[in-house]
Amino acid sequence: MRKNEKRPSTPIRLLLIDDEVDYVNVLSNRLSKRNFDVGKATSGAEAFQMLRKRDFDIAVLDLKMEDMDGIEILKILKKIAPELVVIMLTGHGSAEAAREGIRQGAYDYLTKPCELDELIDKIKEAHGHQPAG
Questions:
Q1: Which among 120, 129, 74 has a CA at the least distance from the CA of 97?
Q2: Which CATH number does the domain housing residue 65 bear?
Q3: Is residue 4 part of a domain?
Q4: Which candidate in 41, 58, 88, 114 could, as Cys together with 110 as Cys, close a disulfide (CB 3.0–4.6 Å)?
Q5: 81-104: pLDDT as tens digits
Q6: How far is 56 from 110, CA to CA, in rounded Å?
Q7: How many structural domains is the chain composed of?
C-alpha cells in the first residue's frame, strides 16, 4: 500500500481466470495482501461455476487458455454476469485478440506479464467505471 493511501472499506471482489496455476496463486496472494477479495479459476468452466456461487466486481481474464479461447470465455461471462467488468491479460503479440475482446464487452487489456501496481491501478480504474446495480 502506498503512503497516505486509505484501504477501501469494502474490498473489491476480484476473479482471476488463468490456466497457469502458479501465476494465479502468486497473484492471488499478492492481491489479497492489498485488500482484494480474490477468487481463483484455472479454466473457463471453473470461472463459470464460481460466478454462479458468488458475485464479483471485476474479472481478470487471460486470453490464452488451454480449455477455451479467452474471447469465448468473455462472451459467456458477459451472458452470466452482464455487469461484471472484465480486464484481459494478453501476451504472445495478440493485440488484435485484445481489441476483439473490447468489442465483445471487455473494459480494457494489459500485456502479460504486467507489473503488479499497473494491474492494481487498472482494477481500481475499472471498478470506478462499474455500472451501479
A1: 74
A2: 3.40.50.2300
A3: no
A4: 114
A5: 999 999 999 876 677 888 889 999
A6: 20
A7: 1
Amino acid at 39: G
User: Is 99 among the domain residues?
Assistant: yes
Looking at the domain assignment, is residue 51 inside a domain?
A: yes
To the nearest 10°, report the CA torsion of 115, 113, 58, 103. 120
Residue 2 pLDDT level (bands cut at 50, 70, 90): very low
- Measured over the CA atoms of residue 100, residue 96, residue 13 and residue 118, the dihedral's sign is negative
pTM: 0.88
Beta carbons within 10 angstroms of residue 66's beta carbon: 9
* Domain region containing 29: 12-128
How far is Cα 99 from Cα 103, in angstroms, rounded to an integer?
6
In a domain, 133, yes or no: no
- C-alpha 22/C-alpha 100 separation (Å) is 27
Q: Which three cell numbers stand for residue 38?
A: 480474490
